[in-house]
Model the fold of this input.
Amino acid sequence: MPPEQPPGQPSGPVRIGDVALAAGVSVATVSKALNGRADVSASTRARVLEIAARLQFRPNAFAGSLRTGRSFSVGLLTTDSFGRFSIPVMLGAEDALGLGEVAIIFCDTRDDPQREARQVEALLHRQVDGIIVNGRRAEARLPLVDSRGVPVVYAFSPSLDPADCSVIADEPNGTALAVGHLLAADRTRIAHITGPRRHRSAAVRARATTANLRMAGLRVAGGARFGTWTEEWGRRSITDLLCEHQDLDGVFCGSDQIARGVIDGLREAGRSVPKDVAVVGFDNWEVMATATRPPLTTVDMNINVIGRLAAQLLLGAIDRSPTSGTTVVPARLVVRESA
Done:
């Protein structure tokens, strides 16, 4: 016995005209909404997407390709083989591409320029409509050598060419949120423990920490401590700091891994978190932040928003409305129990 048809569901395959009729808009408007075009209002796009989902509409990719000359696919080129930053970018991009049925082809370059060149060539051979370039660090990178006119957007790791389209996290803003949270809790003897000095993120966060504390008439207790992005460095560094600054009452860490090590070190030293020492991390690596005891207050760089915005800008470029320059996405503070 065939399954019962859902209420309001047309018999047979659902076509784009069925969605347009149910939404009370034109077929062209449905097409624009499904493909993330900017010239459709947010309310109309939401209504079209909701009706398309309810009717279980699936665009005909082959027909769309013939009509538009597009492949309805984009490449995501990344150096982040661990997925810490590439997966949130990809999930955000998928949110933007939505029911437009634009597929993402994921390519891991493993920091190998020759491998990257081969993967770019493979993506171009597949006639992707555009490419999102992402990295595991926030350092600016060289632009792709030759994309043959295919639009490119750089997400999280910006291009060194200011004319390219890049979307990055606002790390100074995230630092200001973290330091401000500690100051609001009346912490005045605040340390900063972070990653390698040669990494842009460590340097940027350290400078911003110093600047924000200076505006409050304070100094970084013991000076910024540069090391590695590891729990072991956090434990060792906080042990040394407590020997020099026994009155320490706050620590802002350059990463969640470091923060977890700091909290372990404080526990071993008999200090209560957050009663004696409040701790704030950076990254909101949720699997780590929520498993820390107590759960970690930390800065979220909104990487999924970076991915979503990068995809929206890419869609605009594909529609011949390119954007150049760097777009900065504000961070947010996720308050848990450590501060």
Observations:
- Residues 19 and 289 are 43 Å apart (CA to CA).
